[in-house]
Protein: Aminotransferase class V-fold PLP-dependent enzyme
Amino acid sequence: MSLQNPVFIPGPTNMPEVLRKACDMPTIDHRSPQFGAILHPCLEGVREVLKSDSAHIFILPATGTGGWEAALTNTLSPGDGVLAARNGMFSHRWIDMCQRHGLDVRVVETPWGAGLPADKYEEILKSDRDHKIKAVLVTHNETATGVKSDIAAVRAALDAANHPALLFVDGVSSIASMDFRFDEWGVDAAVTGSQKGFMLPAGLAIIGFSDKAMKASQSAALPRTFLDIGDMAQGYANNGYPYTPPFGLMNGLKLSLDMLRDEGLDNVFDRHHRIAEGVRRAAAAWGLELCAQSPDLYSDTVTAIRTPEGFNATDIVTRAANEYGMAFGVGLGEVAGKVFRIGHLGSLTDAMMLSGLGVAEMVMVDLGLNVKLGSGVAAAQEYYRHGSSKAEKAVA
Amino acid sequence: MSLQNPVFIPGPTNMPEVLRKACDMPTIDHRSPQFGAILHPCLEGVREVLKSDSAHIFILPATGTGGWEAALTNTLSPGDGVLAARNGMFSHRWIDMCQRHGLDVRVVETPWGAGLPADKYEEILKSDRDHKIKAVLVTHNETATGVKSDIAAVRAALDAANHPALLFVDGVSSIASMDFRFDEWGVDAAVTGSQKGFMLPAGLAIIGFSDKAMKASQSAALPRTFLDIGDMAQGYANNGYPYTPPFGLMNGLKLSLDMLRDEGLDNVFDRHHRIAEGVRRAAAAWGLELCAQSPDLYSDTVTAIRTPEGFNATDIVTRAANEYGMAFGVGLGEVAGKVFRIGHLGSLTDAMMLSGLGVAEMVMVDLGLNVKLGSGVAAAQEYYRHGSSKAEKAVA
Amino acid sequence: MSLQNPVFIPGPTNMPEVLRKACDMPTIDHRSPQFGAILHPCLEGVREVLKSDSAHIFILPATGTGGWEAALTNTLSPGDGVLAARNGMFSHRWIDMCQRHGLDVRVVETPWGAGLPADKYEEILKSDRDHKIKAVLVTHNETATGVKSDIAAVRAALDAANHPALLFVDGVSSIASMDFRFDEWGVDAAVTGSQKGFMLPAGLAIIGFSDKAMKASQSAALPRTFLDIGDMAQGYANNGYPYTPPFGLMNGLKLSLDMLRDEGLDNVFDRHHRIAEGVRRAAAAWGLELCAQSPDLYSDTVTAIRTPEGFNATDIVTRAANEYGMAFGVGLGEVAGKVFRIGHLGSLTDAMMLSGLGVAEMVMVDLGLNVKLGSGVAAAQEYYRHGSSKAEKAVA
Amino acid sequence: MSLQNPVFIPGPTNMPEVLRKACDMPTIDHRSPQFGAILHPCLEGVREVLKSDSAHIFILPATGTGGWEAALTNTLSPGDGVLAARNGMFSHRWIDMCQRHGLDVRVVETPWGAGLPADKYEEILKSDRDHKIKAVLVTHNETATGVKSDIAAVRAALDAANHPALLFVDGVSSIASMDFRFDEWGVDAAVTGSQKGFMLPAGLAIIGFSDKAMKASQSAALPRTFLDIGDMAQGYANNGYPYTPPFGLMNGLKLSLDMLRDEGLDNVFDRHHRIAEGVRRAAAAWGLELCAQSPDLYSDTVTAIRTPEGFNATDIVTRAANEYGMAFGVGLGEVAGKVFRIGHLGSLTDAMMLSGLGVAEMVMVDLGLNVKLGSGVAAAQEYYRHGSSKAEKAVA
Structure:
């Protein structure tokens, strides 16, 4: 597959070369002040991206999965109740993780393509009189279906039920690409990784904990060492780390945060929205429907597009890779073969997106779908023509 | 301007990252065998790209302009006659260089957009009974107009006139992207640079000399030191160089030659042809004419597209850069403001080209040209759909 | 601190630039065959480094600490007995991890500077008639003290006791730098990381499991998800990974394994021994003693040097960093302030080591220690003079 | 040869990785403002390094040899008189270049190891009543012998003779490493390259012209195009370049100038002096003499060390490369086999220098010279101990 073409998998994303160069550091002594000069700007910058004044930030040498596990094991004890909805592959995996750790998960089965049911959450929380539920889990952006959920509504459900459960949010494919409001939404644990909105290689789990979550960590009985945030906090307090830190990746994160700040977080979100909207208009021009059930659910980082009955959507991904050297995402789990996914997060320009849409069109025509060459591209172009300059400049 | 987008200037070209990494070498001792292990594969590989068995290859730390000057000063003496046609900016510059060196240039003025007039060359050569003309200059590919000339025809003209003049070819924007036959065409000096078909940074002038040109160098009286191929040949014979060599760039060239060999030279030329043909079909779909006067002249590395009377073609380039972060080429010299140029040489995929065409369309619509969004892209897609895989894979 | 100077901390080690460049990859689709082409050579190469025919290799996006936790949680259940000796900071940490996971640790307190007491292990194992001890933990190379332990002796103890406990070895600072014999020693779980002998950035936990350990993983009740080797094995079987893999680092590991193979594992070990022996002779020339109690315990990857009573060894490290831009290791835990450490593992040449010894001498003289400038360097030179060429060449 | 070890050839020098990364740029449009943002800081920074207010700076895609040729051809006409002394290989080459260009060179033969004879220059200039001598050539630092000449004295000679000749200075191995005063010394053309004090790859000829030299360029009749500073000046005035510029190398130069400014030019010179003095003390400790005849001539960028009669100094260089993977410089021309050279310019720390001295000692002992291991290192250490911190920090 060509390394010249951009990728359109929903993460890891296209990485600006300048970020990769920042990651590519010679060895430093991680017990020297050089490390502190990398660590602290990372912690501050992530807090800023979360729109939080007080979140406790932890950066672990792991992936988003490790971040989820850190959120659970640092705050909960075996047998604790957890409330979660399953509306895609990633919410499914989180539920599975809870079960492996002996948590008592109340699963709300939800159609793949629907958002998280805040009303059902409220109902269940209200009925949980003795507060057996210790944590509510929410996937902000279901990468499998391209569905964005309403975290504020879940917070409102908790508040309406006057329920003390912690609110955990999987923001792996939303944070740094879509608006995220840790403080305003009353999030207790937010989890993401380096390889999505931060435009870096995989290898960092990035998490934010509220004071309440920090307090919970003191009595949490699930075992952990590598992912223990107490050790991590103690290290940070001494400009250190509990073990060898991935200082190169963290140095990249430091620069990524500078880039996001330079572009302006709201401009970053606007750019993601504009590029995503172009993709959606292209899909409409192709006569295809989205997996996401309604416009309020449309994700600005990934679009899952349904193909006609009887057509194997995975063929699009395979042919794009083999014939045109371009990577898209396959459907996962329940929607395997029914959707293909176009990732459009991280470091991306309108021009790059046009190449993705152009290739997708060629592939669909090759495979006999009733799609007109240039149609989706034109729909996106018409949208992109109105307002590209601001964001383009910022991606330099 | 975005560094994420590909560039569509007709050189320097998009550089595969792996080549840039090969250039980025720590310091070696250039008097050690490490240097010879870089130098000799370069010399052999360039010879292969020129399709020559016997050309003497020289790699100078200069640009194409330095390469031209090396060709002249190493073979000619003040007052020598030179035959050249002017059909674009680069042929113009070569004529100017000859004049600065006190050569007696017979200039055949030729329309910009036309090819080199082999018939006029033949006429002039036949009338040059006492062989005052020592060299015939030909620009293989006029980067300013997107016109490819017929070197074999010029060789035939020389042969028909039974004229002993040396045949010099500027292959800066053709070699390694379009077919070039040093031996078959009886070329005496071929000149190119690192930053076009070789997909490297500028900084290497790459030249091939025939035995006849080598012989001429022994009596050539034009002064030179930095560009002296005698010093260079002596250095090479000892695995060395007459001064500090640009070993990093040369290490990149070594890998570039491997990549060209791996893809297969003919596949490289086919890929350039396919991508170029897509661009030409897009231009036709836009209702625009090419600067090149007829299909036999169409260049496979750069297309100069005429815009309607009264429209400033340079505005397209300016707006593409400022609003969409993408670089195209302006018209130069006689065709300034009348054409804009799309470079499509070096490391390029169909997908990348679609992004260039997509942006060009948006810009033209923005500027009020009567162009339909998606029309050029669709024309290119239709062409690209039939046969991309072979070359795509090779560009990895 | 200078980034030009080599580092002499006992890991992360000096990284060959070519390895860092291999890590610095553009994004690939980790669900494509491109990933399998990175993964499988890594698994095979690590197995080779472990000198095993059958070990099951797992490469996790974590550090050595994560690797230890993976070894424990994938094989043991809460309350299981574990036998371990504490003879330094890293064996201490492993014991602490076991306790956090609710394992019943039998700790053999051992002087810092001594090796692991195989005889006491044997005694305890023999007395453990009902086989409550499920795992025996051994730190092959105590990075804190520069002490190498005898794994074969521990295996012999297990065999003498006819005890079925699993044998776990922390090889973080030994594997790929010192001889390691997974099969011959009957190791059940070996753990290392990317940032030591493999000369890469931190970020990969690399572990090998025996068939017996794999079998244990089926009934192990300690909870885990991120570090679950069952998920990992299932991913590998499909050329995949249970989540986003750190493909860049793994691509670096693939090249690192090639480099180790090219140099020859035994040559790598010889080089480490030679460089280490030079350091030890320098220490003797300075009149200083090693932390390691006897020559059979001397580590070839790190040397901990005792300073005279009343002198704060940490001052050496601080001054070397501040005044000469060079990083050495401080004493940890019980030997804090009593020793300083010189790391000499990974990518290192005799010449680099001389610069480290030269700086250490200057620092010690600056601080008033009774050391003669040039004395340690001369002792090392005398040793290095006899046999450098083979390994030097291989480190290119 | 090891790429891990520093090099001690007198250029190209050890390159800070951060500079190489700055050179390694993706393609930009060199006709866009992005290029001007690289070019102008380079011109200003070089002027600052030359300690000039008014020098016209030109940066050509060539090497120092090309820079010399640019100085000559842009200011002189065939038959012009030139005064030059030959005291080493590089002054020899400059004289040869003048002769190839048909200049009338008055050569003052000078012992290799001596400085330029300002008194003889004065004598000759005084006797040149009709001012046939148009230029006086001076090699500031003879890289072949490690001899620094006194430019101010040559200026004084010109002034004493009231002679209008231009003063040309080859500062290839001095500028940016040793004090250079363009304005104060009344230099008319200064020439250097990217690969020495600027710590970059070879590929840029960097020259400064006085107003007087600029005026001379208008009537200079030596032919040139590639190296024509008139074209260059016209390009710069439009933020452009007369042909494709080596923007990557220039981007590296821009950063190099920032690094020199950050360290402080005088600190850079002090650091070079300190490191050089350590090397000289080492040579004294070895009982060896320098090629430079007296302390006032000692170069701070390269030291040429004489070996005893009957010993082939080149063997040292060969053995260091083959057995220890380290590069030193051989003797050239008249002193071939009689001296070996240690380069100590550009990016270098005391610690790196100690490794070079340490290896040199091992090699000399290996080859049977009467040298004591550690002796030279100790002499350098003693000197380096007093004052390293300031400069070390700056080289980070």
Chain A touches chain C through 58 residues (CB under 8 Å). Residues 265-394 of chain A form a domain with the Aspartate Aminotransferase, domain 1 fold (CATH 3.90.1150.10). Chain A has two domains: 17-261, 265-394. The longest helix of chain A spans residues 265-285.
